[in-house]
Amino acid sequence: MQQIIGNITVLEAAPILNLGLLIDGLLIGAIFALAAYGLALVWGVMNVKNLAQGDFIMTGGYITWFLGNHGLHPLLGLPVACVVLWCIGWLLYRVVVSKVITRDLFTSLLATFGIAIVIQQGLNLAFGPDTQSAQADLPTWELAGGMITIPATRAIGFVFAALLAVAVIVFMKRSRMGQAIRATAQDARAARVLGIDTEKVYSFTFCLNAAICGAAGALVAVVWNVQPFMGTTYSIRLFVVVTAAGFGNLPGVIAAGFGMGVFEQFGGFILGAQYQQALIVMLLLIVLAVRQLQNLHLRQAVQ
Amino acid sequence: MTSNVRITAVLAALGLSCSAGGAQAADCGTINLGAALSATGIYASNGNNTKKGYEFAVKKINDAGGVKIGDKCYDFKITYYDDESTPARAAQLVERLIGQDDIKFVLGPYSSPMTKAILPVTEKYKTPVVQAEAASRSLFTQGYKYHFGIVATSEKYLTPVIDMAAEQAKKAGKDPSSVKVAMIFQDDSFSLDVRQGVADLMKKYNMHAIIDDRMPKDLNDLTAFFTKVKAVKPDVLLISGHEKGAATAARQMGEHHTDVPLIGVTHCESAKVAQDFPKIAEGFVCPTQWDETMKASDPLFGTAMDYNNQIKAVHPEYKAVPYQTAQASVAIYVWKDAFERAGSLDQEKVRQALIKTDMPTFYGHVKFAEDGSNPGKTIVMRQIQDGKFVVVAPPAVAAGPVVYPRAVNY
Amino acid sequence: MNSARLQPLTYWLLLLIGVAAPMLFPDYTNQIAVLWLMIVFALTWDILGGQMGYNSLGNIFFFGAGMYVSAVTQIGLYYDVGMYTSAARTTHIAFSYSQYFTGFALGTVTGGLVSAVLAIGVGSFVFGLRGPYFAIGTLGIAVAAAELVSSWEWVGAASGISLPVFPGGPETQKLFFYFLLFALSFILLLFLRWLYSTNFGLAINAIRDDEEKAEGMGLHTRGYKRTALVIAAFFLGLSGAIFGNMTGFIEPRDIAFPTTTFNIFMVLMVLLGGKGTLWGPVVGAVVFHVIKEVTWTYFLGWQYVTLGLLIVIIVVYFQQGIVGWVMEKYPERFGIQIAPKEPEEIPRTAGLATQPGGAE
User: What is the CATH number of the domain that holds A15?
Assistant: First the structure.
C-alpha cells in the first residue's frame, strides 16, 4: 500500500512522467488496436472467437526474427510475415475453421484453443523457449532532458500500425470484397441470396485477420520480444479490447486498443509490475460485468 | 497391462541405448539414475543445459572405466522424462521413475519450483536425490533427509552487489544507509529467495528499497518499471527473472537509457545478454556459481579451465559455458564418489556416503551440511567488461576491480 | 431406459475394479489414483457443460480454491500461516500424527464447503453471461485467481506451500490417497445418477434445451443453475484438497489453477466420452488418461502438439463422443427408438425425448 501511494507521489512530483507513460501506452496500444481490429473482424463476420489470435502474432514475430537473423531487416520481414500468415490462415480455415463456423460458439472457441496450443508448442520446438527480439538498430530519442525516451522502433511501429489500419479500413469501405465482407457480417443469409459467395468471404476474412496478426507480430518482435508461450497474454488483452468495445464497433475497438496500452502502463507503474498481468484479467471481468448490467437494462427495456 | 509393461521396457531400453552411446566396457554393470528435466516450457533452455552437463559427465566417467565398487565396474545410465516445466508433472514423473522404472537414485530437475515438487516424493520413498540446479533456501528448511544440493543457495546471489554499493558509498564519504535500491524479481521461489537475501542484508546496512516490484512469469513489458527507475534515480538496480527477465530488462534498459551506476542481474550467461545487447549489458554485475578462471580442480575433470575447454569441444555452440552445465556435471561426479565410498548399491549406504561427502571438484569443494546444503559454496560475481565476463568478487578470486559507475554509452 | 437394468451390475463391477486395482497393479497406484481424479473432473464438468448446456472454462477455480483453503486450514490450526510460508523462515516445522489427520480432515471439509460458498458468488456473476461470454468469463476467473494468489504473500505467493508431510510410510500414503480419490469419484457417480433421475435433472436438461422456454414455463432457472454450480464446486473443492495433500507441494499457476492442463483436460475428456450422459465422462476420462499415461512420455516434447491436435480433432470431427457414437450406432441398446444423427433430421414433434443426452 505504501508503495502504491509512493508511486502516485512520484507521478505527482514529476508530471512529465505522465506524459512519458501516456506516449509509451499509445505507441504500444497501436499494435493492440491493429490486432484487435483483426479479431473483431473475424468475430463480427464469422462469429468465430479466435483464441489463437495471440499465437498468430507470435508466429509473425518469430518469422520476422528468423529472417532478421538471416540478414533481412525486420521492417522488410513484416510483409513476408503477412504473406506467410495469410497462407497459414488459409490452411487453418480449410482444415478446421470452415468446419466449425456453423456450430455453436463453444466449439469454435475450443477448436481455436487447440490451434493455439499446437502453434505455441510448434514454435517452442522450432525456435526454442528463449525470449527473442528482432534488432532494428535504431536510435532512441530523448525529450524533456531524458525524462521521456521514445525509441525509434516504437514510433515506427506506431506509424506502421496506423498505416495498416487505415489501409484495411479503406479496403473494407471501398473494395468489392470489403463490401461483400460487410454485407456478410450484417446478414449472411441475405448476402447469400444476393449472390455473394459467403464461403469465399469467410475464407478471405480469416486469412486477412491472420495477415494482420503477422504484421502485428512483426512489430511486436521489433518493439518488444517474442516467446512461444506469450501468445496467450495477447489473446486475453485482445479479448478485453474487443469485448469492451463491442465487436461491431470498429472505431471503438481501435480506441479501446489504445486505452489498453495506456491502462497497462499506468497500472504497472502505480501498482507494480506484479499486478500488470492480473490487471488485464481483472479488467476483462469488469468489462464483462458492465456488459451484463447493460444487458439487464436492455432486457427491461424489451419487457 | 503386462504387454504395456513390456512395450515400456523395450522402448525405454531403446531410448537408453541411443542416448548413452559412446564406448563402454562390455563387462561393466549399470547404475541407473533418473531425472525429470524440462524439455518443453519456460525452463527448457536450462533444462537442456543441465542435460548436456549430465551427459558430458556420464560419458567422461564411463570412458574412464566407470564407477568402481569393490572390484566390479559400473556404467552410469540416465533415464530422462520431460517435466514440461510444470511442478505437478515433475512430481508425477519422479513417482513413475521410482515406482515403475525402478530407479533407486534420482538426479535433480532444473529450477527450484520443480525440485520443491519432487522432494516430497523422493523423501517418501527414501530415495536419495543429488541436485545441482535448485538454489532456493526453502528447499533446505523442510527437514528432508534424502536431499543433497550442491549449489550455493539463492539468497547469496545478489547480496555481493549490495556489499559493493555499500563500499562505493563509503568511498564517496557517504553512509551506506543513503544507498537507494530499485529491484524487480520474478515471482517464483528462486527469485523470491534471491530477494529475501538482499532484503535481509539491506536491513543490516539500513538501506532503503525505493522500488520493490515483482514480475509475473509471462510478462514481457517492463516499460512501467523502467519509467519509475528513471524517475527515482536509484544507486543500485537489481533484476532477477531467469533468462526472460534478463533479456527483457536488457532490451528495455536500452530503450529507456537507464542510467544506474551499479546493476546486478541474474542469468546473464544463459540469457546471452553480452552477445545480444553488447552495448547495454556493459557493466552488468552477474552472479555465477562457477567461472572457468576459478582456482579449483579435481582428478576427473582437471581444473575449471580444463572442464571449460573439454565441454566447449563437445558443444561448440557455447560461447561462454553456462554454470548450469558445469554444476550438472558435478552432480554426476558426486554420485560416483558416493557409490565408490559406499562400496554398495544400497540406497541407505549410499545416502550415508553422501552425508560424508568431502571432495574437491573443478566447481569448488563439496561437503554437505546436516540440512543437505553445501554451505562452503560461494557465489562468484562477474562483471561484463568490454563484452567479457571478468571476476570482480569475492576478493580472493577477483581478476580485477568492479568498474563503478558502469561505463555505458547509449 | 432398459439399460437401467444393467446398471447395478456395472456399479458393482466398478467398485470391484476400484478396490482391486491397487492390489493388482501396485506400481501404478498413483496413476490410477489420478485417473479417479480425472473422473471427478469430467463428471463435475459435465453437470454444467453437458447436462445444463453451460460450457465453463474455469471449473479449475474451485479445485484450486479447495486446495488452498485446505492448506491454509491445515497449517493455520497450529501455526501462523504467514510465518509458515515466509521465504525468510529457516527452521523446519513438523506436524504430529494427530495434528496431521485432524488438520487434513478439517481442511478437506472446509475446502469443499468454501468452494461451494464461492460458487454462489461466482454463479451470481457468470450466469448473467451468455454463450461464449460465459466460457470467457469463467476462464477469466480462473486466470485471475492464479494471478492474485501468485502475488499474495500470506499464502506463499508464487513460491507455493510445502504441505505437512504424511506421517506414514510411502505404501500407506499411496493407498490412503488412492482410496480417498476412488471413494470421492464413486460417491460422485452414484450421487449424479440419483440427481439426474430427479426433477432437478429434468430441470437442468430443460435449461440446456431452451432456457427462455423453461423460464417461461415457470422454472426458477437461476436457482437450478446456482445449485448445479454449487454441487460441482463442492466436489471439485474436496478433490483439490485431497490432491494437494497427495502432491505435498502446491503452487498457484501450475498445480492449483492450471488453466491449460487439468482445466482443459476436463472439457476434453467429456467431449471425448460423450457430453450430457452419465457414463460418457467416465469413459472419456479413462480413455484419455490411459492413452496419455502410456504414450505421453514417448512424444519427447511433442506431447502438447499432440494434445492440441487431439482437441482440434475431437472438437471438429468427433464431438458426439464415444458414448454418443455408440448410442447412435446401437440406439436399441439404450432404449431409444429413433436416433437422429443430424439436428435437421429431428422430427419436429419428437425433438426433446430422443436427444441422445436424455438417455440416462
Answer: 1.10.3470
The rounded distance, in Å, linking the Cα atoms of B144 and B147 is: 6
Amino acid C229: pLDDT: 95
Task: Give the total number of structural domains in chain A.
Answer: 1
Structural domain boundaries, residue C280: 3-359
pLDDT digits (tens, 9 = 90+) for B323-355: 899 999 999 999 999 999 999 999 999 999 999
- Helices B44-63 and B323-342 cross at an angle (nearest 10°) of 40
Q: What is the CATH number of domain B156-288+380-393?
A: 3.40.50.2300
Name the 3-class secondary structure at B93. Answer: helix
Nearest CB partner across the interface for B87, out of C88, C147, C249: C249
Q: Could you tell me which of C57, C70, C353 has the C-alpha nearest to residue C238?
A: C70
Interface of B with C in 206-225 (CB under 8 A): 214, 216-217
Question: Are C158 and B195 within 8 A, CB to CB?
Answer: no
| Number of domains, chain C | 1
Find residue C151's DSSP bridge partners.
none
Nearest CA in chain C to A242: C133
Q: Is the pLDDT of residue C351 over 60?
A: no
**C-alpha–C-alpha distance, residues A217 and A222, integer Å:** 9
Order of strands across the sheet that contains B147-149: B67-69, B72-82, B29-37, B105-107, B129-131, B147-149
Residue A278: which domain range? 2-302
Q: Is any Cβ of chain A less than 8 angstroms from the Cβ of C132?
A: yes
State the count of interchain CB pairs (< 8 A) between A and C.
109
Report the CATH fold assignment for B2-152+292-367: Rossmann fold (3.40.50)
pLDDT in tens, C309-337: 888 888 888 878 888 888 888 777 766 65
Positive or negative: CA dihedral B10, B11, B13, B17: positive
Residue C92 has its nearest CB partner, among B92, B141, B195, at B141
Q: Does B279 touch chain A (CB under 8 A)?
A: no
Task: List the grid coordinates of C222.
Answer: 437461476
Pairing of strands B67-69, B72-82: antiparallel
What's the whole-model pTM score?
0.83
- Minimal Cα distance from B138: which residue of C? C87
Contact C193, C8 (CB under 8 A): no
C337 touches chain B (CB under 8 A): no
Q: Is C94 on the interface with B (CB under 8 A)?
A: yes
Q: Using CA atoms, how far apart are residues C280 and C358, in angstroms rounded to an integer?
A: 12
Do the Cβ atoms of A114 and C151 come within 8 Å?
Answer: no
Answer whether A48 touches C (CB < 8 Å).
no
Tell me the chain A residues in contact with residue C315 when contact means C-beta distances shorter than 8 Å: 100, 107, 110-111, 114
CB of C191 less than 8 A from some CB of A = no
| pLDDT score of C335 | 62
Q: Are strands B302-303 and B380-385 parallel, antiparallel or unpaired?
A: unpaired
The secondary element (H helix, E strand) that includes residue B384 is strand B380-385
Q: Which of 194-223 (A) contact B at CB < 8 A?
A: none
Chain C residues within an 8 Å CB radius of A115:
308, 312
Residues 98-137 of C with CB under 8 A from B: none
Dihedrals φ, ψ of B25, to 5°?
A: -70, 135
- The whole-angstrom separation of Cα C192 and Cα C188 is 6
Paired with B36 in beta bridges are B81
Query: Are the Cβ atoms of A96 and C135 closer than 8 angstroms?
Result: no
Q: Which of B239, B216, B217 is nearest to B226 (CA)?
A: B239
H or E stretch covering B35: strand B29-37
Here the ipTM equals 0.82
Residue type present at position B228 = K
**Dist. CA C329–CA C341, nearest whole Å:** 10
Give the residue carrying C-alpha cell 478433490: C239
Crossing angle, helix A2-13 and helix A16-46, to 10 degrees?
110
d(CA C54, CA C276): 11
